[in-house]
Amino acid sequence: MKIENKLIASVISGVQALYGQEVTPEQVQLQKTKKEFEGHLTLVVFPFLRISKKGPEQTAQEIGEYLKANEPIVASFNVIKGFLNLTIASSAWIDLLNTINADPQYGIKEPKEGSPLVMIEYSSPNTNKPLHLGHVRNNLLGAALANIMLANGNYVVKTNIVNDRGIHICKSMLAWKLYGNGETPESSGKKGDHLVGDYYVAFDKHYKAELQELMDKGMSKEEAEAASTLMAQAREMLVKWEEGDKETRDLWETMNRWVYDGFNDTYNKMGVRFDKIYYESETYLEGKDKVMEGLDKGVFYQKEDGSVWADLTPEGLDHKLLLRSDGTSVYMTQDIGTAKLRFADFPIGKMIYVVGNEQNYHFQVLSILLDKLGFDWGKGLVHFSYGMVELPEGKMKSREGTVVDADDLIDEMVATARETSRELGKLDGMPERQAANIARIVGLGALKYFILKVDARKNMTFNPKESIDFNGNTGPFIQYTYARIQSLIRKAKDAGIEVPTTLSENIELSTKEEGLIQMIADFADVVKQAANEYNPSVIANYVYELVKEYNQFYHDFSILRETNFDLQKFRLMLSANVAKVVEEGMKLLGIEVPERM
After folding, report:
1. What backbone torsions phi and psi does residue 575 show, to the nearest 5 degrees?
2. Among 92, 119, 198, 566, which residue carries the largest CB count within 10 Å?
3. How confident is the model at residue 428 (pLDDT cuts 50, 70, 90)?
4. 481-498: pLDDT as tens digits
5. Cα 562 to Cα 571: distance, rounded to the nearest angstrom
6. What is the pLDDT, as a whole number, of residue 399?
7. Assigned CATH topology for domain 280-403
8. How many Cβ atoms from other residues are within 10 Å of residue 387's Cβ?
């Protein structure tokens, strides 16, 4: 039983014995004792004053005396105003460490029959350009959230909706037709998504040049845009695509295939996977059908021009367009169609969309519309809304080709990790393959941790150099501590000392050691909190605090040189369980930890 649970039961008994009244577990408020006070856990006694009919200090004193006399795990107590600070006996902490040590997946719950199914949508790329830094944040958040929901006993389906149709796709296709000279990924040596992205940038460059030429002849910007032959060709290509023109569709499929090959390579580098991928080209017609069904049922209404709308004024919003007068769909329609297909494919209990905060209004509306259309999870859908990610130099723009490409960023991070590790002598004497693998683990770990340690709701600036520091709140600092513990365990084994399976409870521990066990035990609650708040940064910052605390312990206490055999065994088991929780926590963030470093 958890220490907190034992204390809650004893406090309930104590209040009954002292004051003759029953209290509920919810009324027993326990929290970690603040660092400036002595104790491990603090009981807030204010909720009991009406029952005790005494002042806060006297009530705390009486409950403290009862617990000291009747609850063996309470070693001592002190009273600060209305707060009862409880010091827990060393034997209780050792008992708790034995329990944690016996559980190889401490803090992780496996899904079982009847567990809810959570679907998480993330990535959502366009097929006219490669993945960039913004996509990296999206993918890392989505993948981490999927791991966290799974660790809380849910079934999880990771899904992606690919935006593979529309005018932006036609711009890349048209530019390739006009300026490509038959170039392919094979002939150019470029990744397919990069190649297609180059033509998206080329379209914008030629379009701007055409507008400037027309404006130089005396046209206004609006007139030039209306007269642009390049944009007219792109729109014509979109119409042909909609009509199923073979030549247009063949080119579209070829260029999309190039992009998908490129995407898959980037996803593999990031360690990102999907269980099911949906394509906008397949979902938008489903969305139209669902909207027309809603129109027939009186959920939506039609204007004289034939456009279909939803009246959301009863919900405090406005009127929302769902189908244009020419029958073409908008993004909302496509999302409704995707929802229809997903609902047919899976018994979704909760739907989480990982999409930037510029889409907050969109998902507020989508939730209402899906509920009106009868999707059980519509009202409860979660928009995991995250802020923008920028570089120290500022914002990025796809059309102008100023985005930070995901592949370039990953390669740069791995190269920087290799260089930094070499300078610090961490790769000395390692075979080439092992050194390259550690550089990959550290570089990706630095990137992922730096992004995931920030609360997703906040905008952030990603600084590559800062992220690869081996000190401070970084991935490499945590990875290095894990490797240090593995080295300690290997040295112990070489000296014939094994990590024990259980410990004797008759060991006197220091405050630092007890505090470390308390921190390890917190992991289960942290995993639960991260899921309840949809917040991977809770895990990232917990792991950092645990590692920081362990490093102080490692510096201040002997482990293998400890002459007290029982203490030596205890400290080895303590170290092994810190490593176990660090590995598990980093795994939830999608980050590997190296055995050597």
Report:
1. -60, -45
2. 119
3. confident
4. 999 999 999 999 999 999
5. 9
6. 44
7. Rossmann fold (3.40.50)
8. 16
HEC letters along 87-145: EECHHHHHHHHHHHHCCCCCCCECCCCCCCEEEEECCCCECCCCCEHHHHHHHHHHHHH
Arithmetic mean of pLDDT over the chain: 93
What percentage of residues in the chain have a pLDDT greater than 70? Answer: 98
Contact 519, 545 (CB under 8 A): yes
Instruction: Report how far residue 160's alpha carbon sits from residue 275's, in angstroms, rounded to the nearest whole number.
Output: 8
User: Long-range contact list for 430-436, CB < 8 A, 24+ apart?
Assistant: 430/596, 434/596
The helix (H) or strand (E) run that includes residue 311 is strand 308-311
Cβ partners under 8 Å of residue 245, min gap 6: none
Tokens at 246, concatenated: 């073979």
> What's the predicted TM-score (pTM) here?
0.91
Residues in the chain: 597
| Distance in angstroms (rounded) separating the CA atoms of residues 54 and 51 | 8
Name the residue among 270, 268, 263 with its Cα closest to residue 447. 270
User: What's the gap between Cα 568 and its chain centre?
Assistant: 38
Q: Which of 432, 310, 285, 430 is nearest to 369 (CA)?
A: 310
Burial per residue of 410-440, b for 16 or more beta-carbon CB atoms within 10 angstroms, e otherwise: beebbebbbebbeeeebbeebeeeebeebbb
The neighbouring-strand residues paired with 431 are: none
pLDDT at 465: 79
Q: 237: Cβ–Cβ under 8 A, 6 or more apart, which residues?
A: 170, 173, 174, 248
199: phi then psi, degrees, rounded to nearest 5: -75, -25
The DSSP result for 382-430, as a single string, is EEEEE--EEBTTB---TTTT-S-BHHHHHHHHHHHHHHHHHHTTTTTT-
Residue extents of the structural domains in the chain:
3-88, 280-403, 406-588
Copy the structure tokens of residue 381: 């859908």
The superfamily in CATH containing domain 406-588 is Isoleucyl-tRNA Synthetase; Domain 1 (1.10.730.10)
Q: CATH assignment of 3-88? A: 3.30.1360.70
